[in-house]
């Protein structure tokens, strides 16, 4: 909803709202899957909404994109093949491709219009789309993972919208089983896992579904994300038994710049607040 | 402003907004200093607003109160005398008094009505108000610090509202000079320092004023705080030359429970994201 020039997202699940002051609506498209809107804000650059939910702002998307990619890529010993399910704004793809060892990164988002809008209004997120290692598909991510060759992928990153609408099927056992089969034995699944303050039940339920699919070790990493409900978000990593020690020396010597991620931020995120650890049975 | 049963705070400085779904307004008082309102929310317990700005919710205040107190108290070698300027909701006082070594904690808030409202709607924050070590004053914090005996205080915590209105005088050189004089040589000043994403200029300006007042070493610690603009907040510690290594073993063995603060969270917060470190000249 909007009030004069303020644009709000009322997040019913948690009874909290996030908003930005905007100058004008720049674009709007109803794709076969969802409504995508772009606003020009006064202080946050451009803002993309999908079905009324804030997805990306120019100003703060680096937090999410860096944390969805670098912790997993520095945890895997030598990631070469990465699949991104969702992620149509291409920001996660850009971060993944910063790792020189990555040989192939497939991005499979069901909605081509998200990428077309990103190219137009968030061109900086799409600057690696022409990388020879990138393959950008517009297709059903559930089918893509189901058809993936077994043991062919090092890291699957599920960069999805909330678990309602098109993304609902990306949070259940059947999908996670496909990911488990596609991943090599030392592979890592990464899923955006919502707010650690108000959606702990969702994180627990998601981990339970991952567990039913065969994953046995989990790590939830919190990070700030102002444009998402409560301003505090998380990603969850799942593996087939391995731990989550990461290549700290490599992370410290990384050959690219970041705005948020560092080896120390990574280590810090690994220490969960007691109320989160307790809820997740790690306390 | 409110829309049906949603209550928003439009934060003009950063062009962002925070909101909560509420059932009803429980109370309202216009004190000589400010308007205090209490709402019952659907998911966040009670919410206190001062002059339209979200101050405290039942659900998430632990983040702020723990981070305003424990990092400083575990950084000081043996804090005995603590002064809290502002902090009328008494939540910071409660956390300070969890430290058995503290012999005296003075809370000086200019507005008695804040404490009266907290006693009624946030009684859990006031549960240590009867502690024999607590002294609760309703007076001008600027005058209190100016009149403090030199070298008499171990830690000053400035738990204030934003630097407009009654709290404006708590962010400048004159006030920080009073704090500097009142603090012992190994003392620590703690100031809530707003959002590390959108208010870096304020943090820099505040550090500059602290510097003019004689403080020479600084540490800004970010933490999540959903009810404040952007959901990402910070406190800044200032000292007279000493560093910020903390009593890690004591923090690990602390004789009280916390929901957010741990020694590892403290260490994690000490590692600033590169964009913050760079802006503060620590990169």
Automatic annotation (TrEMBL), chains A, B:
<dbReference type="InterPro" id="IPR035246">
    <property type="entry name" value="Spermidine_synt_N"/>
</dbReference>
<feature type="binding site">
    <location>
        <position position="34"/>
    </location>
    <ligand>
        <name>S-methyl-5'-thioadenosine</name>
    </ligand>
</feature>
<dbReference type="InterPro" id="IPR001045">
    <property type="entry name" value="Spermi_synthase"/>
</dbReference>
<dbReference type="Pfam" id="PF01564">
    <property type="entry name" value="Spermine_synth"/>
</dbReference>
<feature type="domain" description="PABS">
    <location>
        <begin position="4"/>
        <end position="240"/>
    </location>
</feature>
<keyword id="KW-0808">Transferase</keyword>
<comment type="function">
    <text>Catalyzes the irreversible transfer of a propylamine group from the amino donor S-adenosylmethioninamine (decarboxy-AdoMet) to putrescine (1,4-diaminobutane) to yield spermidine.</text>
</comment>
<feature type="binding site">
    <location>
        <position position="166"/>
    </location>
    <ligand>
        <name>S-methyl-5'-thioadenosine</name>
    </ligand>
</feature>
<comment type="pathway">
    <text>Amine and polyamine biosynthesis; spermidine biosynthesis; spermidine from putrescine: step 1/1.</text>
</comment>
<feature type="binding site">
    <location>
        <position position="109"/>
    </location>
    <ligand>
        <name>S-methyl-5'-thioadenosine</name>
    </ligand>
</feature>
<feature type="binding site">
    <location>
        <position position="89"/>
    </location>
    <ligand>
        <name>spermidine</name>
    </ligand>
</feature>
<dbReference type="InterPro" id="IPR029063">
    <property type="entry name" value="SAM-dependent_MTases_sf"/>
</dbReference>
<dbReference type="InterPro" id="IPR030374">
    <property type="entry name" value="PABS"/>
</dbReference>
<comment type="subunit">
    <text>Homodimer or homotetramer.</text>
</comment>
<feature type="binding site">
    <location>
        <begin position="159"/>
        <end position="162"/>
    </location>
    <ligand>
        <name>spermidine</name>
    </ligand>
</feature>
<keyword id="KW-0745">Spermidine biosynthesis</keyword>
<protein>
    <recommendedName>
        <fullName>Polyamine aminopropyltransferase</fullName>
        <ecNumber>2.5.1.16</ecNumber>
    </recommendedName>
</protein>
<dbReference type="GO" id="GO:0005829">
    <property type="term" value="C:cytosol"/>
</dbReference>
<dbReference type="Pfam" id="PF17284">
    <property type="entry name" value="Spermine_synt_N"/>
</dbReference>
<feature type="binding site">
    <location>
        <begin position="140"/>
        <end position="141"/>
    </location>
    <ligand>
        <name>S-methyl-5'-thioadenosine</name>
    </ligand>
</feature>
<dbReference type="InterPro" id="IPR037163">
    <property type="entry name" value="Spermidine_synt_N_sf"/>
</dbReference>
<keyword id="KW-0620">Polyamine biosynthesis</keyword>
<feature type="binding site">
    <location>
        <position position="65"/>
    </location>
    <ligand>
        <name>spermidine</name>
    </ligand>
</feature>
<dbReference type="GO" id="GO:0004766">
    <property type="term" value="F:spermidine synthase activity"/>
</dbReference>
<dbReference type="InterPro" id="IPR030373">
    <property type="entry name" value="PABS_CS"/>
</dbReference>
<comment type="similarity">
    <text>Belongs to the spermidine/spermine synthase family.</text>
</comment>
<dbReference type="GO" id="GO:0008295">
    <property type="term" value="P:spermidine biosynthetic process"/>
</dbReference>
<feature type="active site" description="Proton acceptor">
    <location>
        <position position="159"/>
    </location>
</feature>
